[in-house]
Amino acid sequence: MRILVQKFGGSSVADLECMKKVRSKVLAALEEGNKVVVVLSARYGQTNSLLERAYQWSDEPDPAELDVLLTTGEQESVALFSMLLRDSGIKARSFLGFQLPIVTDDAFGSARIDTINADTIREAFQTYDVVVMAGFQGRTPDMRLTTLGRGGSDTSAVAIAAALGDDTICDIYTDVDGVYTTDPRMCKDAHKMERISYDEMLEMASMGAKVLQIRSVEIAEKYNVPVRVRSTFSNDPGTLVTKEDSMMESVLVSGIAFDKDQARVTLRDVQDRPGSAASIFSPLGNAGIVVDMIIQTASRDGVTDMAFTVSRKDLKRTLDVLEKAAPACSRIEHSSNIAKVSVVGVGMRNHSGAASRAFDALYKAGINLIMISTSEVKISCLVDESDLELAVNVLHKEFDL
Fold first, then answer.
1. Are strands 255-271 and 239-242 parallel, antiparallel or unpaired?
2. Residues of the binding site
3. What are the binding residues for ATP?
4. Over the stretch 61-80, which tens digit does the pLDDT of each residue have?
5. Rounded to two decimals, what is the model's pTM?
6. Known binding residues for substrate
């Protein structure tokens, strides 16, 4: 039995006409001899509408009850779409996360998947040709409903494909026709890639590319699930996200990612002694604040400056945590008119010169680098937000993308 997992986001199921386009994709997959698992998000705008309603009823909604509310968005989608399929003569039925079950931890609002009972899907295929599965949701071992966080339907789809095994392919349908070398709205020369490695996609997603949710890429890489990013509104084959090969490694840089959701915090005159960094970052970690780039200046007369970046939405909370923790420093400064631009490519593992080329190109364009961080497959630079578009275009041209 050949199984294909197809995931459709909120804009793809926004209304009846959109769902009819989704139905055509399902019909095409059935005609190719597949059994199909269709994973759906809530219809466009529904999750935000439910959130607004929750905060009308409660100043601080209970996280567990909020998840109960939010899961109704996907429940609506799968019921409506199953009706549409059945009226077309297709043998289909819907499942919610708790019915498989998809078992998660109890981190309400951002739960992580522990197990999936894929046998329920296989058994359903004895009677049905299409299983319509609610994305974004699961349940705890003690039967509390959970959600997987924004973009969680991507995670649901890839995890289901991984659980089904047997070379199951996962198609992620969106409103774009694949993964581009950078955002076409930022750079007119951007073009769609035919293939991209898991590591590159993971870096681009973490650096701000919104095509795939980060956790879905992690699962795809761990279980070697081929993922195709495609458009609901065209027949373009899209971009294949897969394990790297020698052809990918021969290309130095694959794409340019950027992230405007950046804020910088600088602590001046931090005491240069054991435990100083821990006094700053341990309270932030305990508060669930994700710290990204970190830089520390050379010691001078027993003190140093330390700077790091966080999400802009976490800036106020970061400053509140640091005020309570009172690390040994003379003052705390912050700014949010910054952005991060990243050069991404698995070829950098085996080829030198990418960093020097990137820095030289940005220097010639008159762009100041505020902070720098690197990994095996990426080089990230923090720049003024006003320089971001120029930086993206300069780097895209420098690496002939």
1. unpaired
2. 7-10, 47, 74, 174-175, 180, 185, 210-211
3. 7-10, 174-175, 180, 185, 210-211
4. 999 999 999 999 999 999 99
5. 0.81
6. 47, 74
